[in-house]
Amino acid sequence: MMSRLRAYLNRSSRVARDATARVLQMQGAEQRSRAPLTLFTLHTPEAIKQYAYGCDADVGGTSTVHFDFDDDPARAPPGPDIHTDTSTGTSPDNQRRGAARFHGVMRLAVRPGYEQRIRGGYAGFRNKFRPTLFGELTDDVSNHRFLALRVRVAGHPRTRDSYFVNVQTEGPTNDDLWQHRLYFTRDDGGWEDVFIPFDGFVMTKAGTINTQPVSMLRERVRSVGISLLGGNAGVEGPYELGIEKILAVNEEDVTVPPLDSSIRQPGQGAQWERGPI
């Protein structure tokens, strides 16, 4: 209980600091920083608790999902290649370095009685929304061009081409979601840094692509998450994704070619995103 209260007060303090910084920027007293902005780190068991996760089993499917802290030395993330804003905190020196592990089994079948009612084959996670004394905490990434993720993919090879990155911003409804395919260059289960241009995300509404011209409200990012949409491609099997950190960066901090922003293939809808978990 005390840890939740402490987190709530810390978020409230951050909102107050951010509001002061915006006032200074409008007055010309402070230049906007191009330095990498750490959005989320998943180095500790406590950080993992700030995430929501689910799968089709929540509504009648048969897939499984787990989202837990993984400190197995064999899967430990490397040192920081993505430049990290250390002011957000990292793992204590006396704690083994770890990361989040998103894993389970993707299945297309549904439970008896749910045939023709739902489509199986999805799982996902995102950070929990962050209430404060001054409203919900959001992130301003309007001064950064790329979303950066440190990830590693394992599981059955056929599941590795069905991952999507999901960004939700402030808006009038909760079913608007910005999506981009997540592709990997490694197939050996090793860690890699992935860079996705914010301009490459496509807005979806309840799983349908929005054909109207609209720009992402990058000043008010509520959540960042990843979903596995096996039902779109008829993909089944064990899946596994490690994720250590999520940042916003600019060109000078992109260390590998970014994902092609012309690849616009959003999913048919991460249904778990649209309902309470």
Structure description:
With 277 residues, the chain is mainly beta. It is built from three helices and 15 strands. The protein has helices spanning 2-26, 45-48, 230-233; strands spanning 37-41, 51-55, 66-70, 99-106, 122-127, 130-132, 135-137, 146-155, 163-169, 176-181, 192-197, 202-205, 208-209, 221-229, 237-249. The protein has a seven-stranded antiparallel β-sheet with strand order 2-5-14-9-10-12-13. Strands 1, 3, 4, 8, 11 and 15 form a six-stranded antiparallel β-sheet that branches. It has a two-stranded antiparallel sheet with strand order 6-7. A hairpin with a 2-residue loop joins strand 6 (130-132) and strand 7. It is globular and about 60 Å long.
Helix and strand topology:
Elements: H1 2-26, E1 37-41, H2 45-48, E2 51-55, E3 66-70, E4 99-106, E5 122-127, E6 130-132, E7 135-137, E8 146-155, E9 163-169, E10 176-181, E11 192-197, E12 202-205, E13 208-209, E14 221-229, H3 230-233, E15 237-249
Antiparallel strand pairs: 1-15, 2-5, 3-4, 4-15, 5-14, 6-7, 8-11, 8-15, 9-10, 9-14, 10-12, 12-13
